[in-house]
Each structure stands twice: as structure tokens, then as C-alpha cells.
């Protein structure tokens, strides 16, 4: 299992790779330095034991502290059920607002609230997503555009680019209103 922590407001470039211990025992690192190795020979090296063999170099303490602080922040302002309730309300509201543009803007994934996360990926067949992102940015709305590091997924749907709006605990219905106001303005202008 792999996940990044910037999704919960930690610094970028910190991530977690969780593997079963039995699988890790069967893997040999391709390279090593620092505490990841026990012994170096001229043409090979002997790796350290687990988990150190896969953690060469100095640990990134600053990013690890940012992870800790992001978790502390989330715990200080919300309980998990409140995050879930807020998420459900915003998803429902977002999908309701989407109804006004759905004839021109296609949503990938379900238009239903059930089993949905608060990430919405769209495309407009006749307009490039990077242009939409630029126009949104001019109105202080940050969205992601292009292929989102998911080219195989995009190829499956015969899409070259999409734009994505993501919500999080700091977003509100007013943010959603602004997103759709600007999107409707873009649709009228193009």
C-alpha cells in the first residue's frame, strides 16, 4: 500500500510505503548507503536488516514533523465522523451544482453521492483542460488539469486531458459556488 501525506496537509514529498514483512524479506535493495548497509565490498554490499535496508540516507525529519503536525491539526479541529459528515454534505452540494452544467461538462465517475470521494474529474470535449485551469486561476481558483499522472486510466476512456476539482476540510459551499460561477462564465465565453 502506498499513499502520500500531502493529501492531509503535510508537506509534499513525504509518503508511506507499507509492505508485508514476508515480502520485504524476499527483496534485495538495488543500492544502499548509510545505515541501509552493513558491509561494503568493492563489487557488492551486504544490506542491513529490516526495515533499515530500504531507508538509506538521513531521514527527512522536517517532512516527518510536518506529517505529525498535520495529524495533530486534524485531530484538534475535527473528529472523524464530523469530517465524514462534512464530506458527504459537500459532495451532495457539489453534485447538485453540477446539474446546471452537465449538458456541456462531462463528469467522470458517478453522479450519485453514495461511495463517492470529494474529487471530481471533468472534461469538455471541445476545450482543453489546461485552458480551463488557467481561466480558473485568474479567478483565484486552483484546480488540476491534464492527465493527473494517470495516463493508462485516461487512455481507457480515450481522453487526453481532464480537469479536476478537489474538496477538503477547509472548503465550504461558498467555494463550490465560486467554482461553478466561474465554470459557467467560462462556458459562456468559449
Low-confidence residue ranges: none
Number of domains: 2
What is the helix content? 25-40%
Q: Globular, elongated, flat, extended or rod-shaped: what is the shape?
A: elongated
Full CATH superfamily name of the largest domain: Aspartate Aminotransferase, domain 1
* Continuous helix count: 6
**Distance between the amino and carboxyl termini:** 42 Å
- How many DSSP-defined strands? 8
Sheet-strand content, in percent, reads 15-25%
In terms of structural class, how would the helical and strand content be classed? alpha+beta
Average pLDDT score: 89
Mind telling me the CATH class of the largest domain?
Alpha Beta
The rounded Rg comes to 22 Å
- Sheet bearing the most strands, described? 4 strands, antiparallel
CATH-derived architecture of the largest domain: Alpha-Beta Complex
Instruction: Write the CATH fold name of the largest domain.
Output: Aspartate Aminotransferase, domain 1
Task: Describe the 3D structure.
With 190 residues, the chain is α+β, with helices and mostly antiparallel strands. The chain has 2 domains: 2-77, no CATH class; 89-189, Aspartate Aminotransferase, domain 1, CATH 3.90.1150. Helix content is 39%, strand content 15%. It has a 4-stranded antiparallel β-sheet with strand order 5-6-8-7, with helices on one face. Helix 3 (80-98) packs parallel to helix 6. The longest helix is centred in the middle third of the chain and has 19 residues, at 80-98. The model has no long low-confidence stretch (mean pLDDT 89).
Amino acid at each position: 500500500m502506498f499513499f502520500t501525506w500531502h493529501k492531509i496537509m503535510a508537506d509534499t514529498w513525504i509518503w508511506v510505503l507499507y509492505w508485508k514483512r514476508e515480502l520485504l524479506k524476499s527483496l534485495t535493495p538495488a543500492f544502499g548507503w548509510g545505515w541501509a548497509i552493513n558491509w561494503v565490498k568493492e563489487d557488492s554490499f551486504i544490506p542491513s536488516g529490516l526495515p533499515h535496508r530500504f531507508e538509506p540516507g538521513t531521514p527527512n525529519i522536517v517532512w516527518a514533523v510536518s506529517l505529525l503536525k498535520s495529524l495533530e491539526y486534524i485531530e484538534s479541529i475535527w473528529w472523524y465522523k464530523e469530517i465524514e459528515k462534512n464530506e458527504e454534505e459537500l459532495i451532495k452540494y457539489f453534485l447538485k451544482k453540477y446539474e446546471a452544467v452537465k449538458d456541456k461538462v462531462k463528469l467522470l465517475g458517478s453522479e450519485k453521492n453514495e461511495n463517492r470521494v470529494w474529487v471530481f474529474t471533468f472534461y469538455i470535449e471541445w476545450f482543453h483542460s489546461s485552458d480551463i485551469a488557467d481561466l480558473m486561476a485568474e479567478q483565484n481558483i486552483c484546480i488540476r488539469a491534464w492527465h493527473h499522472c494517470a495516463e493508462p486510466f485516461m487512455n481507457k476512456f480515450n481522453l487526453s486531458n481532464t480537469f479536476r476539482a478537489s474538496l477538503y476540510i477547509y472548503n465550504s459551499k461558498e467555494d463550490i459556488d465560486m467554482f461553478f460561477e466561474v465554470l459557467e462564465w467560462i462556458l459562456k465565453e468559449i
